[in-house]
Amino acid sequence: MDVFRSPPFTVLYEDARKQAKELDAEFASTKTLRGPFHGVPVSVKDNYQIEGYDATIGFTAWANNPGKKDACVVAQLRAAGAIIFVKTNVPQTMLAFECSNPLWGRTTNPWNNKYTCGGSSGGEGALLAMDGSALGIGSDIGGSLRIPASYCGVYSLKPTAERVSSIGTQAVRPGFEVIRSSHGSLARLVATCITWLILDYFLGLFRTVNCSAKLSLAKKDSSHQNVPMPYHAVELPSKLRFGYYLSDGMMESSPACKRAVLETVSALRKQGHECIEFTSPLNASAMEVFLGLASSDGYKKMLSHLDSDPMEDSLFLVTLGPRLLSFVRKLACWIAKTFLGDSLFPRFFSLAREKSVLEFTDFTDQRNKVAAAWYEQVWDKYGFDGIIAPVQSLPVIPHGGATYLSVLAAATITYNVIDSPVGTIPVMRVNPDTDNLSTDFVVGASGRSKMFETRMYLGKNPVYDPKAMEGIPVGVQLVGKKWEDENVLVMMHVVDAALGPRGFGPGSWQPIKTVSI
Question: What is the pTM of this model?
Answer without folding.
Answer: 0.94
